[in-house]
Design brief:
Number of strands: 7
Structural class: mainly alpha
CATH class of the largest domain: Mainly Alpha
Shape: elongated
Distance between the termini: 60 Å
Number of domains: 2
Length: about 210
């Protein structure tokens, strides 16, 4: 969802830079490319897209100044189509892959130009859009759990939630330890956030004395 918001924001910014009254599909598509790009380069299926080659400064600063711009009817139709695609896939929110897939039927403007230049068919475009979410899901599945735990265990300062997880107790128990002074804690300067030294977790542990 955040990528979709990035795409829409960049499309509006680009529309202002071009002194247009409405966001057209071209600006929205460029916003989508920016949202999936790294340093202005986006991988879309087998195609590498360079925003600079497309005549766009991907380092444009945000601009909240007037004049206001609106979405064209064509862009509204694209969002509606993306919502249908999202619903068909069981999603209540429009992701960037849904929005890009909505461009598959476009034969005019930038989308049509890119399809003709790179020989992308309607099905090929939708496949490239689908790969975006598939790639993210695969990356999440392949992320080693042990590595995540190693990063967590390497932190010297923990939130109450992290401390509770490390001790295997409820977070409210940790907060009770802090309130009673049983567990030393620190507060971030000027903030309400609490942090606990990992080494201090041992203060709430005591040796188990065997009975009998």
């Amino acid at each position: 969802m955040r990528e979709t918001e990035t795409a829409a924001s960049f499309a509006i910014l680009l529309t202002k830079k071009r002194n247009l009254a409405e966001v057209t599909p071209d600006e929205l598509l460029l916003g989508c490319i920016l949202a999936i790009s790294h340093f202005g380069i986006a991988q879309f299926g087998p195609v590498i897209l360079d925003l600079e080659e497309l005549g766009v400064d991907w380092l444009m600063p945000s601009d909240k100044s007037s004049p206001k711009v609106a979405y064209s009817q064509e862009v509204v139709a694209l969002f509606d189509h993306a919502a249908q695609i999202a619903k068909a896939g069981g999603s209540s929110a429009i992701r960037i892959d849904h929005l890009l897939a909505a461009f598959a039927r476009e034969e005019s403007g930038l989308a049509g130009e890119l399809k003709r230049k790179h020989g992308i068919t309607n099905a090929g475009w939708r496949h490239a859009a689908a790969q975006l979410e598939t790639g993210r899901a695969a990356q999440t599945r392949q992320e080693p759990k042990d590595d995540r735990e190693a990063v967590s265990s390497a932190r010297d300062y923990l939130s109450p939630e992290d401390a509770a997880e490390a001790l295997g107790i409820h977070v409210q128990t940790v907060r009770a330890y802090i309130r009673t002074g049983k567990l030393p804690a620190l507060r971030l300067a000027g903030e309400r956030a609490i942090r606990i030294r990992r080494s201090d977790l041992e203060t709430v542990l005591e040796p188990l004395v065997p009975q009998g």
